[in-house]
Design a protein that fits this description.
- This protein folds into two domains: 259 residues, Aldolase class I (TIM Barrel, Alpha-Beta Barrel); 76 residues, Non-ribosomal Peptide Synthetase Peptidyl Carrier Protein, Chain A (Orthogonal Bundle), CATH 1.10.1200.
- It is of the alpha/beta class.
- The strands form three sheets. The protein has an eight-stranded parallel beta barrel, surrounded by seven helices. It has a two-stranded antiparallel ribbon with strand order 1-13.
- The chain is 37% helix and 16% strand.
- Helix 9 crosses helix 10, helix 11 packs antiparallel against helix 12 and helix 11 packs antiparallel against helix 14.
- Bound molecules: flavin mononucleotide (FMN).
- The site of flavin mononucleotide has 24 residues, from strand 5.
- Keywords: Flavoprotein, FMN, NADP, Oxidoreductase, tRNA processing.
- It comes from Bifidobacterium oedipodis.
């Protein structure tokens, strides 16, 4: 494998003060949230379930959508290569439930030609109503191949990839959007330029996760960058980063003027957050914080839907559910041995037995309401292809190195 450029980020990506304002928001401060138009698709409540690999498969999306009917619920990223290779796992991720109103799918690719082919499959087989492109992933195995959040640095590949996908999708009136980060680090910011390229090439909206690759999931996202992007683009901008409760969504809109918000980790184990944000956007002060009995009802439903997703394989379903259960139970007074027993469940009967031991009347623990959860660390270092930062465009040799090897490796 080629050597990598490694940026040591210690000290480089310190995030300033939490930019959020105090949580109490008067009703007259509720921003007017208009529906967002993505080409031919209307998103009535401009709230997006941000794609999360291993999390936002259709069972979780359906549960979120039941709480917040009329947002945009994006599937986890699907690797273009894997789709083109018809990898069964990738194909399973392209499934949608009949109840899903907007079938929204995210593609990840580095090679414009392969990503175009993947988009063509999506279009020809009527797989989705909306395609999002992933330019935000900070995971080393992705960025070391020049993908995800590394790609906007190479404006030639970035532009070509968007242009080709938009061309394919436009022909079928499928809107394409792009999800980006601020840049690779603060010395290599790309978001304004990337936003403009996305707009020029025909993307219908951009989502900005207001962190750099180096910041990974650490500190607080810098919402001022969302405001900057919103001010410089004509297409809608969705703000993303650190929305843990409905008041955060209001605060982000007020502070940045963004057209909508995208929620990632905040809804892990809290799908009702979509109801709370919808209420907040409508000026309704009602907030849902379910008791343990209601949370168990959601866990049961989630398990049933996952069993369907895994075509009746309860073991796969319950294993997939484990991380969600940890999130669902976060903060509840549930002992370590019970939590461990949940992590050892192998089927629905095990799950029912463990839920039967819980006290359904326990109220939602105030100390975790609207509080951060999930990944929270900075990157130790950013992994990039060799010499990646030396120029903003690629040479022929670089493209050969990036695209030439292992063309049917379906894992990236
Ligand atoms: C477990 C996990 C998986 C993720 N997978 C994806 C993904 O597949 N595609 C993507 O664009 N972003 C992905 N993200 C990033 C989120 O969509 C989101 O941009 C990020 O978590 C910041 O939003 P948040 O502060 O609301 O969590 C992932 C994040 C997490 C925590």
């Amino acid at each position: 494998m080629a050597a990598e450029t490694v940026i040591d980020e210690r000290g480089d990506s310190l995030v300033g003060e939490d930019p959020r304002s105090p949580r109490s928001i008067e009703p007259d401060q509720v921003p007017h949230m208009a529906p967002v138009q993505l080409g031919s698709i209307t998103v009535p409540t401009p709230v997006v379930l941000s794609p999360m690999a291993g999390v936002t498969n259709w069972p979780f999306r359906v549960i979120c959508e039941e709480y917040g009917p009329d947002g945009l619920y994006v599937a986890e990223m699907i690797t273009a290569r894997a789709l083109v290779a018809r990898n069964p796992k990738a194909l399973r991720l392209c499934h949608f439930a009949p109840s899903e109103k907007i079938r929204s799918l995210q593609l990840y690719g580095v090679n414009p030609s392969i990503t175009e082919q993947a988009a063509k499959i999506v279009v020809d087989e009527g797989m989705a109503d909306h395609v999002d492109l992933n330019f935000g992933c900070p995971v080393p195995k992705v960025t070391r191949r020049g993908g995800g959040s590394a790609l906007p640095w190479k404006t030639d590949i970035f532009t070509e990839l968007i242009s080709r996908v938009v061309k394919v999708c436009d022909a079928a009136s499928i809107p394409v959007t792009a999800k980006i980060r601020v840049g690779i680090d603060h010395n290599h910011e790309t978001f304004l330029e990337a936003g403009h390229i996305a707009q020029e090439e025909g993307c219908k909206a951009v989502t900005l996760h207001a962190r750099t690759t180096a910041e990974y999931y650490g500190g607080h996202s810098d919402w001022s960058r969302i405001g900057e992007l919103k001010a410089s683009l004509d297409i809608p901008v969705f703000g993303n980063g650190d929305i843990w409760g409905a008041e955060d969504a209001l605060a982000m809109v007020r502070q940045t003027g963004c057209d909508g918000v995208a929620v990632g980790r905040g809804c892990q184990g809290r799908p009702w957050l979509f109801a709370n944000i919808k209420n907040a956007f409508e000026g309704n002060p009602e907030r849902i914080n379910p008791n343990l009995g209601e949370v168990c009802r959601i866990i049961r439903r989630h398990a049933e839907l996952l069993t369907e997703f895994y075509e009746g394989d309860e073991r796969m379903a319950v294993h997939d559910l484990r991380k969600h259960i940890a999130w669902y139970l976060k903060g509840f007074p549930v002992g370590g041995s019970t939590r461990k027993a949940f992590m050892e469940c192998e089927n629905m009967a095990d799950l029912e037995r463990e839920m039967g031991n819980l006290d359904p009347s326990i109220e939602y623990p105030p100390r975790v309401i609207d509080k951060p959860r999930g990944r929270v660390r900075f990157a130790k270092k950013v992994h990039l292809p060799y010499g990646w930062l030396d120029a903003r465009t690629t040479t022929h040799e670089e493209r050969e190195t990036l695209f030439g090897d292992d063309p049917m490796d379906a894992s990236y």
